[in-house]
Amino acid sequence: MNINHHLDDATLVSYSAGALSQGMALVVASHLSVCPQCRQRAELNDAVGGALLESLESESIADDMLASILTQLDDLPLAPHSAVYDLSHKTIDPEVPAPLREYIDCSLDQLVWKRIVPGVTYYDMPWEGRGVSRLLRIAPGKAMLAHTHNGNELTMVLRGSFSDEIGRFCRGDVADLDDQIEHQPLVDSEEDCICLIATDAPLRFTTLFGKLVQPITGF
Ligand SMILES: [Zn+2]
Asked: Which of 127, 148, 215, 219 has the fewest C-beta atoms lying within 10 Å of its C-beta?
Protein backbone atom coordinates (compact mmCIF):
# COMPACT_ATOMS: atom_id res chain seq x y z
CA MET A 1 0.00 0.00 0.00
CA ASN A 2 1.44 3.34 -1.03
CA ILE A 3 0.50 5.78 1.73
CA ASN A 4 1.07 9.51 1.24
CA HIS A 5 -0.97 11.14 4.01
CA HIS A 6 -0.23 10.34 7.65
CA LEU A 7 -1.32 11.10 11.20
CA ASP A 8 -0.26 14.34 12.91
CA ASP A 9 2.17 14.19 15.84
CA ALA A 10 -0.48 15.73 18.09
CA THR A 11 -2.94 12.97 17.17
CA LEU A 12 -0.36 10.23 17.82
CA VAL A 13 0.53 11.70 21.22
CA SER A 14 -3.15 11.95 22.19
CA TYR A 15 -3.61 8.36 21.04
CA SER A 16 -0.64 7.13 23.11
CA ALA A 17 -2.07 8.99 26.10
CA GLY A 18 -5.47 7.34 25.60
CA ALA A 19 -7.03 10.80 25.23
CA LEU A 20 -8.92 10.26 21.97
CA SER A 21 -12.61 9.45 21.64
CA GLN A 22 -13.42 5.84 20.75
CA GLY A 23 -14.16 6.80 17.14
CA MET A 24 -10.94 8.77 16.67
CA ALA A 25 -8.91 5.99 18.32
CA LEU A 26 -10.45 3.50 15.89
CA VAL A 27 -9.33 5.55 12.87
CA VAL A 28 -5.82 5.89 14.34
CA ALA A 29 -5.61 2.15 15.10
CA SER A 30 -6.87 1.33 11.60
CA HIS A 31 -4.24 3.55 9.96
CA LEU A 32 -1.49 2.15 12.22
CA SER A 33 -2.48 -1.36 11.16
CA VAL A 34 -1.51 -0.58 7.56
CA CYS A 35 1.21 2.10 8.02
CA PRO A 36 4.65 0.98 9.32
CA GLN A 37 5.86 4.59 9.24
CA CYS A 38 3.23 5.88 11.71
CA ARG A 39 3.56 2.70 13.78
CA GLN A 40 7.24 3.47 14.27
CA ARG A 41 6.43 7.05 15.33
CA ALA A 42 3.77 5.77 17.76
CA GLU A 43 6.28 3.34 19.30
CA LEU A 44 8.76 6.18 19.70
CA ASN A 45 6.10 8.24 21.50
CA ASP A 46 5.41 5.33 23.83
CA ALA A 47 9.14 4.98 24.52
CA VAL A 48 9.46 8.70 25.31
CA GLY A 49 6.43 8.48 27.62
CA GLY A 50 7.95 5.46 29.36
CA ALA A 51 11.31 7.22 29.79
CA LEU A 52 9.55 10.26 31.24
CA LEU A 53 7.75 8.10 33.75
CA GLU A 54 11.05 6.44 34.69
CA SER A 55 12.79 9.78 35.27
CA LEU A 56 9.88 10.89 37.45
CA GLU A 57 10.22 7.67 39.35
CA SER A 58 13.86 8.23 40.26
CA GLU A 59 13.63 11.91 41.04
CA SER A 60 10.38 13.03 42.50
CA ILE A 61 7.90 10.26 43.09
CA ALA A 62 8.00 8.33 46.31
CA ASP A 63 7.91 4.55 45.88
CA ASP A 64 4.46 4.13 47.36
CA MET A 65 3.03 6.91 45.19
CA LEU A 66 4.46 5.29 42.08
CA ALA A 67 3.03 1.93 43.10
CA SER A 68 -0.36 3.57 43.55
CA ILE A 69 -0.18 5.18 40.10
CA LEU A 70 0.83 1.90 38.47
CA THR A 71 -2.05 0.11 40.19
CA GLN A 72 -4.44 2.73 38.90
CA LEU A 73 -3.02 2.30 35.40
CA ASP A 74 -3.59 -1.45 35.66
CA ASP A 75 -7.20 -0.84 36.60
CA LEU A 76 -7.95 1.39 33.62
CA PRO A 77 -10.16 -0.17 30.95
CA LEU A 78 -8.29 -1.04 27.80
CA ALA A 79 -8.44 1.62 25.10
CA PRO A 80 -9.32 0.29 21.63
CA HIS A 81 -5.69 0.55 20.51
CA SER A 82 -4.36 -1.66 23.26
CA ALA A 83 -6.98 -4.34 22.84
CA VAL A 84 -5.91 -7.70 21.51
CA TYR A 85 -7.99 -8.45 18.46
CA ASP A 86 -9.34 -11.96 18.37
CA LEU A 87 -10.10 -12.40 14.70
CA SER A 88 -10.24 -16.18 14.58
CA HIS A 89 -14.03 -16.20 14.17
CA LYS A 90 -14.19 -13.32 11.67
CA THR A 91 -14.28 -13.28 7.91
CA ILE A 92 -11.05 -11.68 6.81
CA ASP A 93 -11.77 -8.99 4.26
CA PRO A 94 -8.49 -7.29 3.33
CA GLU A 95 -10.38 -4.06 2.66
CA VAL A 96 -11.40 -3.83 6.33
CA PRO A 97 -8.47 -2.91 8.62
CA ALA A 98 -7.99 -5.34 11.51
CA PRO A 99 -9.19 -2.98 14.31
CA LEU A 100 -12.42 -2.30 12.38
CA ARG A 101 -13.15 -6.03 12.04
CA GLU A 102 -14.05 -5.98 15.74
CA TYR A 103 -17.20 -4.08 14.75
CA ILE A 104 -17.85 -5.22 11.19
CA ASP A 105 -18.44 -8.88 10.64
CA CYS A 106 -18.87 -8.79 6.87
CA SER A 107 -17.46 -7.16 3.76
CA LEU A 108 -18.03 -3.44 3.17
CA ASP A 109 -20.55 -4.25 0.42
CA GLN A 110 -22.62 -6.41 2.75
CA LEU A 111 -23.22 -3.60 5.27
CA VAL A 112 -26.66 -2.02 5.46
CA TRP A 113 -25.91 1.51 4.23
CA LYS A 114 -28.29 4.35 5.07
CA ARG A 115 -28.84 7.09 2.53
CA ILE A 116 -28.21 10.76 3.35
CA VAL A 117 -28.70 12.22 -0.14
CA PRO A 118 -28.43 10.50 -3.55
CA GLY A 119 -24.91 9.08 -3.92
CA VAL A 120 -24.01 9.47 -0.23
CA THR A 121 -24.65 6.71 2.32
CA TYR A 122 -23.30 5.93 5.78
CA TYR A 123 -22.98 3.19 8.35
CA ASP A 124 -22.70 4.27 12.00
CA MET A 125 -20.34 2.60 14.44
CA PRO A 126 -22.30 0.98 17.26
CA TRP A 127 -21.55 3.43 20.07
CA GLU A 128 -22.63 6.77 21.38
CA GLY A 129 -20.19 9.42 22.44
CA ARG A 130 -18.85 12.80 21.59
CA GLY A 131 -18.54 13.43 17.88
CA VAL A 132 -19.31 11.15 14.99
CA SER A 133 -17.91 7.72 14.16
CA ARG A 134 -19.06 6.18 10.91
CA LEU A 135 -18.27 4.78 7.52
CA LEU A 136 -19.18 7.09 4.69
CA ARG A 137 -19.69 5.87 1.13
CA ILE A 138 -19.73 8.42 -1.67
CA ALA A 139 -20.35 7.78 -5.37
CA PRO A 140 -17.84 8.79 -8.09
CA GLY A 141 -17.98 12.46 -8.99
CA LYS A 142 -19.88 13.41 -5.82
CA ALA A 143 -18.59 15.98 -3.40
CA MET A 144 -18.94 16.06 0.36
CA LEU A 145 -20.50 19.30 1.54
CA ALA A 146 -17.99 22.06 2.22
CA HIS A 147 -17.37 22.25 5.93
CA THR A 148 -15.00 23.34 8.65
CA HIS A 149 -14.75 21.79 12.09
CA ASN A 150 -15.31 22.83 15.66
CA GLY A 151 -12.80 20.19 16.61
CA ASN A 152 -10.73 17.58 14.81
CA GLU A 153 -11.79 15.31 11.97
CA LEU A 154 -9.98 12.09 11.08
CA THR A 155 -10.72 10.34 7.79
CA MET A 156 -9.15 7.13 6.51
CA VAL A 157 -9.76 5.92 2.96
CA LEU A 158 -10.70 2.22 2.72
CA ARG A 159 -11.69 2.14 -0.96
CA GLY A 160 -11.48 4.54 -3.91
CA SER A 161 -10.07 8.04 -3.57
CA PHE A 162 -10.98 11.69 -3.10
CA SER A 163 -9.31 15.03 -3.61
CA ASP A 164 -9.69 18.26 -1.71
CA GLU A 165 -7.81 21.51 -1.12
CA ILE A 166 -5.01 19.57 0.60
CA GLY A 167 -4.36 16.85 -1.97
CA ARG A 168 -5.43 13.44 -3.22
CA PHE A 169 -6.27 10.72 -0.70
CA CYS A 170 -6.16 7.03 -1.67
CA ARG A 171 -6.56 3.72 0.14
CA GLY A 172 -4.74 3.79 3.50
CA ASP A 173 -4.27 7.58 3.56
CA VAL A 174 -5.59 9.62 6.48
CA ALA A 175 -6.76 13.22 6.43
CA ASP A 176 -5.98 14.58 9.90
CA LEU A 177 -7.71 17.95 10.05
CA ASP A 178 -8.11 20.56 12.74
CA ASP A 179 -10.53 23.48 12.99
CA GLN A 180 -8.43 25.76 10.77
CA ILE A 181 -9.26 23.97 7.54
CA GLU A 182 -12.27 24.34 5.30
CA HIS A 183 -12.48 21.66 2.65
CA GLN A 184 -14.81 20.01 0.16
CA PRO A 185 -13.70 16.46 -0.67
CA LEU A 186 -14.61 15.32 -4.21
CA VAL A 187 -14.60 11.62 -5.09
CA ASP A 188 -12.29 11.16 -8.10
CA SER A 189 -12.13 7.34 -8.33
CA GLU A 190 -14.19 5.25 -10.75
CA GLU A 191 -15.61 3.22 -7.87
CA ASP A 192 -17.37 4.49 -4.72
CA CYS A 193 -15.10 6.04 -2.12
CA ILE A 194 -15.53 4.46 1.31
CA CYS A 195 -13.97 6.23 4.30
CA LEU A 196 -13.84 5.64 8.02
CA ILE A 197 -14.55 9.00 9.64
CA ALA A 198 -14.49 10.31 13.19
CA THR A 199 -14.95 13.78 14.59
CA ASP A 200 -14.63 14.91 18.19
CA ALA A 201 -17.11 17.77 17.73
CA PRO A 202 -19.87 18.59 15.22
CA LEU A 203 -18.79 19.84 11.79
CA ARG A 204 -19.62 23.43 10.84
CA PHE A 205 -21.10 23.50 7.36
CA THR A 206 -20.26 26.60 5.38
CA THR A 207 -23.00 26.41 2.76
CA LEU A 208 -26.70 27.04 3.28
CA PHE A 209 -27.54 23.58 1.92
CA GLY A 210 -25.07 22.05 4.35
CA LYS A 211 -26.73 23.86 7.25
CA LEU A 212 -30.15 22.66 6.08
CA VAL A 213 -29.18 18.98 5.88
CA GLN A 214 -27.06 18.98 9.04
CA PRO A 215 -29.95 17.71 11.22
CA ILE A 216 -30.40 14.85 8.72
CA THR A 217 -26.77 13.90 8.27
CA GLY A 218 -26.10 13.95 11.99
CA PHE A 219 -22.67 15.56 11.54
ZN1 LIG B 1 0.96 6.77 8.39
From this structure: 215
